[in-house]
Design goal:
CATH superfamily: Glycosidases
CATH architecture: Alpha-Beta Barrel
Distance between the termini: 15 Å
Number of helices: 16
CATH class: Alpha Beta
Structural class: alpha/beta
Order of helices and strands: EHHHEHHEHHEHHEEHHHEEEHEHHEEEH
Shape: globular
Bound molecules: ligand GBH
Number of domains: 1
Helix content: 40-55%
CATH topology: TIM Barrel
Strand order of the largest sheet: 1-2-3-4-5-7-10-11
Largest sheet: 8 strands, parallel, barrel
């Protein structure tokens, strides 16, 4: 077997509209729920918001040039729904300036031999839809409006875009947006989360149905969803903790993956959530089951799982990075939720292949090195902890492909640029490119050079 990735392996960087674009009130764009949320007192670290961020709505050409310089094969970005249909709904006007912006971007990418991967929804719902009917809580309305939005994108870009991702991490929209309230729209409780998750699945599935019936035959692309999971490693080999790790997977990933790939919710979720978990009608289920051409995966770390605790939202499991012998799992990132543990990535890839039997597209993976926002740039560009991370994760992926036979088709590092890190504002930097937010100067960190070199050496010619 080859010791390299196949020649058609795709690597590149990922970003998201609200995190990089800025220009929030330019060319007809109206607010999204993230504009509203991030401007709320205390919602984000130091009051950060996406008003300016990396200014990529204006500097997109410079960003493409950077991608070219890095030698990537692909770029994953998301469309801001609020730019193309500012009020969001199926009877609301389409904004030509917004359509043109992404058309220009897509054309520039293709001219540079960079394959666009387009995410339809990376969390920035038009505020108009939140106000009008409660956004993701309203099944009848949101499914129709989302499908209408999807149609507009297939029509506008489908001649050039052959890789579509319906949703980015529906777990975050459901749980962080509607249960813990740390993300927009900031709702709390443990009822809405299950309705929102259900509606996200339906919106995804009906958009895929539309694409397959009306666009795929002529455009010939593929479409799927991106789910997120941190590998769930039992804290020790006790039967309770082994079972808890599976429950952790069910509550984070299985609640989306099992309906979409297998046609039912996991038993453990049904048992604990009871009638708060909506049911699919027969007709809906026929659309939901099998509604993704591939397995889109965002993953950053591994969590050690213990049974217990009374956090229903995560299936009554507890998380730690401290092993039974008191040692840490790996190198600590700037954010508390992330440590480096490449073996967990390899295990996760094997688990997904075994369980769902579809090609895997890694659509995000990355690391935030400590204190990059407060140390001088000359120091920050030598990001050794990020390089250690990428080296470990890239090699784990390589082994999953070449030794374990897992069909991984892509690897997108998060992120091309430092950018607006949601509730963490600008304190956390995930970029391989340092952004000076006062001058907008972009400076490659050593990790950018590392990834270029690694993929040049490990993809077959
Ligand atoms: C991805 O989310 C996002 O797609 C991307 O936009 C983001 O910039 C990137 O990761 C880096 O964070 O879960 O309550 O403990 C990854 C999912 C969601 C994981 C927030 C960490 C922290 C709060 N992340 N979560 S919590």
């Amino acid at each position: 077997m080859s010791t390299k990735l196949p020649s058609d392996f795709v690597w590149g960087y990922a970003t998201a509209s609200y995190q990089i674009e800025g220009s929030v009130d330019v060319d007809g764009r109206l607010p999204s729920i993230w504009d509203t949320f991030s401007h709320r007192e205390g919602a984000t670290k130091d009051g950060g918001n996406g008003d300016v961020t990396t200014d990529s709505y204006r500097r997109w050409k410079e960003d493409v040039a950077l991608l070219k310089q890095y030698g990537v094969k692909a770029y994953r970005f998301s469309v801001s729904w609020s730019r193309v249909i500012p009020l969001g709904g199926r009877d609301d006007p389409v904004n030509d300036a917004g359509i043109k912006h992404y058309r220009d971007l897509v054309e520039e990418l293709v001219r540079n031999d960079i394959t666009p991967f387009v995410t339809l929804y990376h969390w920035d719902l038009p505020q108009g839809l939140q106000d009008r009917y409660g956004g993701w809580l309203n099944k009848e309305e949101i499914v129709k409006d989302y499908v209408n939005y999807a149609r507009l994108l297939f029509e506008s870009y489908g001649d050039l875009v052959k890789n579509w991702i319906t949703h980015n991490e529906p777990w975050c929209v459901s749980v962080l947006g509607h249960a813990t309230g740390v993300f927009a729209p900031g709702h709390t409780g443990n009822t809405e989360n299950w309705i929102v998750g259900h509606n996200l699945i339906l919106a995804h599935a009906y958009a895929v149905k539309l694409y397959r019936e009306q666009y795929k035959p002529s455009q010939g692309g593929q479409i799927g969803i991106t789910l997120d999971l941190q590998w769930q490693l039992p804290w020790d080999d006790s039967p309770e903790n082994i079972e808890a790790a599976q429950r952790g997977i069910d509550f984070k990933l299985g609640r989306f993956a099992d309906p979409i790939y297998k046609g039912f919710y996991p038993d453990s979720v049904k048992e604990l959530i009871g009638d708060r978990l909506p049911e699919f009608t027969e007709e809906e289920l026929a659309v939901v089951k099998g509604s993704s051409d591939f397995f889109g995966l965002n993953t950053y770390t591994t969590q050690l799982v213990q049974d217990g605790g009374d956090n229903e939202i995560q299936g009554n499991v507890k998380y730690t990075f401290t092993r039974p012998d008191g040692t840490q799992l790996g190198t600590q990132a700037h954010v508390p939720w992330l440590q480096t543990y490449p073996e967990g990535f390899r295990s996760l890839l094997n688990y997904l292949w075994k369980t769902y039997q579809l090609p895997i597209y890694v659509t995000e993976n990355g690391f935030a090195a400590k204190y990059e926002n407060t140390r001088p740039v000359e120091e920050v560009v030598h990001d050794t902890d990020r390089i250690e991370y990428y080296e470990g994760y890239a090699n784990a992926l390589l082994r999953a492909v070449t030794e374990d036979g897992v069909p991984v088709k892509s690897y997108f590092a998060w992120s091309l640029l430092d950018n607006f890190e949601w509730a963490d504002g600008y304190d956390t930097r995930f970029g391989v490119t340092y952004v000076d937010y006062s001058s907008q100067k972009r400076t490659p960190k050593d990790s950018a050079k590392f990834l270029t070199k690694w993929f040049n050496e490990h993809i077959s010619s």
